[in-house]
Design a protein that fits this description.
The complex is a heterodimer of chains A (184) and B (426).
Chain A lengths: L2 H16 L7 H14 L9 E3 L2 E3 L1 H12 L3 E8 L2 E8 L3 H7 L1 H6 L1 H11 L4 H20 L4 H12 L5 H14 L6
Antiparallel strand pairs in A: 1-2, 3-4
Helix pairs in contact in A: 1-3, 1-4, 2-7, 7-8, 7-9, 8-9
Chain B lengths: L8 H8 L1 H4 L21 H22 L1 H8 L3 H17 L26 H11 L2 H5 L2 H6 L4 H9 L20 H14 L8 H7 E4 L8 E5 L3 H19 L2 H17 L12 H6 L3 H9 L4 H9 L4 E5 L8 H12 L3 E6 L13 E3 L7 E3 H4 L1 H5 L6 E5 L4 H15 L14
Parallel strand pairs in B: 2-5
Antiparallel strand pairs in B: 1-2, 3-7, 4-7, 5-6
The chains are: A mainly alpha (184), B alpha+beta (426).
Chain lengths: 184, 426
């Protein structure tokens, strides 16, 4: 296990601890990792690509499986009508990996705190939408279409038609207010 | 494998292109034939198989979940027919970006300007945009019926937002229940001569469904309740194939040698990038060319080991799910062996690593009741990620190394009962 592996594993219980709820879900874990890497340049080495549920890299879930296997975190399933979710809690083994990844976790503590502060109040659907907007924004930032805002809202709506244009606009406004959009 | 696979004229012309025919010269499982002699199959037949399987899955979902697709994405029967063709072509071309001997050589892909290593999907997308643009965009079947651009296929393959709502189908190309995995498990199992990768594809493709998004989330692919054992079989097939074929100790050793040999054979030790003229040079690399280089005596020590079948030997391995003391003990042995250890391979780094799949299952009696597969399956609930670590030495050092390992194991055995000492008998 190299230092980057330890850093990725150490980050999982840290994100769970820092979340206001004291745990995080799988969607939140995936999107927080995306935000850390994309918005804060934290060198996690993931390769996110786009799915209808937002940016995704199966390596994040592989790391979660590994963290569970090593007893760094424990997961429980929560059911609700229409679906289910996960609650990922820190487990006793977390302290060992946090210690091994201490230098990384110290260096990027502000970034982790920032992500939890800015996005910790969003539910899974809002995280899917916000991360999709940021992914589209980053693609637009490279090719630069004129009137990027209108294009961005329109494209996000095509990818995620179950959101209304008004919902997408509100989310774009919120992300713009946070200063995380590069194309607008 | 699947009986007859039907292609229309458009697909046949795509298959006839040199960049597709190159897949006949890229083995699916690299040097696995050194363990399982029948595993000589190529990416060519796999690509045809993936196109076939994805059609089966797509049509099953389209007929069983038409209401979900209509409500969530506004699909009409005509729209579904159109996107089926797009997804078939994407499936057909999903592997055209593979380097020689498939995943085994991907570590030698160069890095982009941001320092991230290129991935074979990016090579596939770049090849679609260049080598296949003309045949995709100008074929009469396309111009008269669909109007697809090569970019539509490339965007779907690499997960670009330009794929728009067709991103929903990307899970069939690269996801927990993708056609790629379904084909390679069955195909690899068949050619290797093992039964580990078998699962009930008929049942899988008759119970796969689209599940409505809830609480504002996107819809997902899953299985109807009647198919959860078939889904469980798919997960188990993957687990067994990983432990018995993909992470087989000798197969892993040949991956080490292939990477080592290629790093000497390739200019500057890396494949060309998937940009501009470099892409043409990348496409000139296939298994035949690498084998020619090896036959000519190139590839250094690793090349010679490949030619002589004198592979590294495993001397110690951790359990698949290491306990608290297992990895520290492995590190202790590694320290004791010192320079004798020439490679340390981790299951968690393998391209084929399994992780823990959790597939949505929707109740047959109430479509609002959705549970993960792990809720239904005791076996899946108990599965953990494979974190096995393997230590290798040169064959000429194996006796000396085994003697050292034996000493360490014997001194620890009274305290630890589950150490994995590989006798090297096979």
């Amino acid at each position: 296990m190299n230092n980057r592996d330890k850093a990725r594993l150490g980050l999982i219980p840290v994100l769970a601890e820092k979340h206001p709820a004291g745990y995080i879900g799988r969607t939140a874990l995936m999107k927080y990792m995306y935000f850390l890497q994309t918005l804060r340049d934290v060198p996690l080495g993931y390769s996110f690509s786009m799915y209808s549920y937002g940016p995704f890299d199966s390596d994040v879930l592989s790391d979660l499986s590994m963290a569970e296997s090593l007893n760094l975190v424990s997961s429980t399933t929560v059911s609700f009508y229409g679906g289910y979710g996960y609650r990922i809690h820190p487990a006793p083994g977390a302290e060992v990996v946090k210690d091994e990844a201490r230098e990384f976790l110290t260096r990027y503590k502000e970034d982790v705190d920032w992500v939890v502060a800015e996005f910790g109040n969003l539910n899974s659907a809002d995280l899917e939408l916000a991360s999709t907007i940021i992914y589209v924004d980053r693609e637009f930032a490279e090719i630069g279409p004129p009137d990027a805002r209108a294009h961005l809202i329109s494209l996000v709506n095509e990818i995620k038609p179950h959101f209304t244009l008004e919902q997408i606009e509100r989310s774009v406004d919120s992300l713009q207010h946070k200063g995380v959009l590069a194309s607008i | 494998m699947h009986g007859f696979i039907s292609l229309n004229n458009w697909e046949r012309e795509i298959v006839d292109k040199p960049a597709f025919q190159r897949l006949r010269r890229i083995r699916q499982l690299a040097w696995t034939d050194q363990v399982y002699p029948g595993a000589m199959h190529t990416r060519f037949e796999h690509s045809l198989g993936v196109m076939h399987v994805i059609s089966r899955l797509y049509n099953a979902i389209s007929s069983r979940s038409l209401d979900v697709l209509r409500d969530e994405f506004g699909y009409t029967p005509e729209g579904l027919k159109r996107d089926e063709q797009l997804i078939r072509i994407a499936a057909l071309l999903h592997d055209v970006g593979h380097s020689p001997f498939s995943h085994a050589s991907e570590e030698l892909f160069p890095e982009n300007e941001k320092g991230a290593k290129f991935q074979h999907e990016q090579y596939s997308a770049a090849i679609v945009r260049t080598q296949f643009r003309e045949v995709i965009e100008n074929h009469p079947l396309n111009t008269a019926n669909y109007g697809f651009r090569a970019e539509d296929v490339a965007a779907l393959l690499e997960g670009s937002t330009k794929a728009k709502q067709t991103l929903f189908w990307r899970d069939l190309l690269d996801g927990q229940m993708d056609a790629d995995r379904m084909d390679y498990l069955l195909r690899d199992s068949h050619h290797a001569g093992v039964q580990y990768g078998r699962f009930d594809l008929n049942r899988v493709s008759n119970t796969i469904v689209a599940i409505r998004g809830t609480r504002g989330r996107a819809p997902r692919l899953g299985f109807s309740e009647g198919g959860w054992h078939a889904a469980e079989g798919l997960v188990l097939a993957r687990y067994f194939m990983f432990t018995q074929v993909y992470f087989h100790k000798t197969r892993v050793a040949y991956d080490i040698h292939l990477k080592g040999a290629l790093s000497e054979i390739l200019p500057r030790g890396k494949f060309p990038r998937p940009v501009g003229g470099e892409l043409d040079e990348f496409l000139r690399w296939d298994d035949w060319r690498v084998l020619g280089e090896l036959h000519a005596g190139r590839g250094g020590e690793h090349g010679k080991r490949l030619v002589d079948r004198n592979h590294y030997r495993i001397v110690f391995k951790s359990p698949e799910i290491p306990g608290p003391g297992d990895l520290p003990f492995l590190e202790k042995i590694k320290l004791r062996l010192g320079r004798l250890v020439v490679a340390t391979e981790e299951a968690s780094k393998s391209w084929y690593k399994t992780g823990v799949a959790d597939i949505p299952i929707v109740s047959d009696s109430d479509p609002g009741l959705v549970q993960p597969l792990s809720w239904y399956s005791n076996v899946v609930r108990s599965m953990k990620a494979n974190n096995q670590v393997l230590l290798y030495v040169r064959s000429e050092d194996s006796e000396k190394a085994r003697s050292i390992v034996r000493e360490e194991v014997e001194s620890e055995q009274s305290r630890q009962g589950t150490l994995g000492f590989d006798s090297g008998a096979r």
